[in-house]
């Protein structure tokens, strides 16, 4: 679990990045690509220096069109194979967090199974309804409201995550064994920046920016 101060700092820096993107007129703002999780798992390289060098290469290839055309000529089946590997690691990384939970607990197994089932069933209903009727199940005079309901509930990860989050934070929380079943005790030392000696290595900013953006 990332310390709250690190999360706040990351959101702030992302806001600054989006502001700079708007100045330069980019098509999309600063965002996170899940493929990078798979790339990190394959290469085992998580250094910021590598990211900075990669950004320099991307700027270089964007300025010189011939080099960009070289990468654009890579056949799509190669990209498809890379994505299969990357997303396999992404899925495995998400499932690996279950190792901290008590999978022998009926509560854990129920939340896991029920969220998977609802996460597949509800979006399937929304998508099939839209394909037959031409609009989603929520069809009012306000299109913005329709999109607010139909679009998220047509997404399987969103529905599964929402159901799992709701059940995990409501079912039998008053019982003392539930906290251990949820795996929260594994993350206690990471809730504060100073409780783990590796926090400075993991979350320190380059160019001595920690003086201006300290972590607690």
TrEMBL record:
**Does this entry carry the keyword Transmembrane?**
yes
Q: Which GO terms describe its molecular function?
A: transmembrane transporter activity
Q: What is its main location?
A: membrane
Output the superkingdom of the source species.
Answer: Eukaryota
A Pfam family reported for this protein in Swiss-Prot or TrEMBL: Xan_ur_permease
Indicate the transmembrane segments per the record. 50-72, 78-98, 110-126
Q: Where in the cell is it found?
A: Membrane
Regarding protein family, the annotation reads: Belongs to the nucleobase:cation symporter-2 (NCS2) (TC 2.A.40) family.
- In Swiss-Prot or TrEMBL terms, this protein is called Nucleobase-ascorbate transporter 6
């Amino acid at each position: 679990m990332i310390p709250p101060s690190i999360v706040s700092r990351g959101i702030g820096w992302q806001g600054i990045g989006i502001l700079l993107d708007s100045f330069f007129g980019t098509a999309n703002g600063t965002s996170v690509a899940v493929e990078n999780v798979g790339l990190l798992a394959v290469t085992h390289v998580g250094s910021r220096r590598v990211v900075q060098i990669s950004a320099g290469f991307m700027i270089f290839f964007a300025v010189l069109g011939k080099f960009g055309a070289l990468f654009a000529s890579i056949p799509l089946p190669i990209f498809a194979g890379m994505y299969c590997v990357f997303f396999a690691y992404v899925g495995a990384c998400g499932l690996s967090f279950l190792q901290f939970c008590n999978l022998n607990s009926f509560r854990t197994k129920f939340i896991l199974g029920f969220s998977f089932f609802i996460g597949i069933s509800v979006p399937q209903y929304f998508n099939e309804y839209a394909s037959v009727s031409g609009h989603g199940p929520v069809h009012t005079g306000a299109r913005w409201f329709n999109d607010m309901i139909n679009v998220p509930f047509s997404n399987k990860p969103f529905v599964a995550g929402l159901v799992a989050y709701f059940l995990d934070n409501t079912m039998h929380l008053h019982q003392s064994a539930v906290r251990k079943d949820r795996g929260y005790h594994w993350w206690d030392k990471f809730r504060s920046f100073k409780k783990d000696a590796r926090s400075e290595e993991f979350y320190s900013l380059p160019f001595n920016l920690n003086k201006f953006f300290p972590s607690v």
